[in-house]
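# nightly structure sweep
# worker-07 picked up a monomer target from the shared queue
# config: single-sequence mode, recycle default, output format = structure tokens
# input follows
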Amino acid sequence: MDLSNMSRRQTEDYGKSAVAQYLKRRGFRIIDRNATGEIDLIARKEKTLHFFDVKTIFCTEFPEQNYALDSYDQSADLHAEKIQKVAMASEEYLAEKFWKGAAQVDGVLVWLRARDWAAKVVHLPQIL
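# output follows
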């Protein structure tokens, strides 16, 4: 599969799948995907629900440091307004599910390397 021919939606879905696998390997249990227009993934680890906003970008090589990119840094898309929207959506979700435990909003940056589909995932806990 040629990643350069993927639609934006397909790219986002591929990135979310990479994040889901990453989280599972770290002891999270995936609860929901695309729960609302603002929340990409919901996962539980121990007694905490985590609401994830995932930002995915193609690259030819992974950045040397977690946030350093030569062209575009998708962490810029995790701005205050976007984080607030995710937080508000998570509060609605928690109310609908009558969740009484801990909850937090996390960000995830994903770089997809075009030549081999490899993904570099960086989890940014408690961005709010």
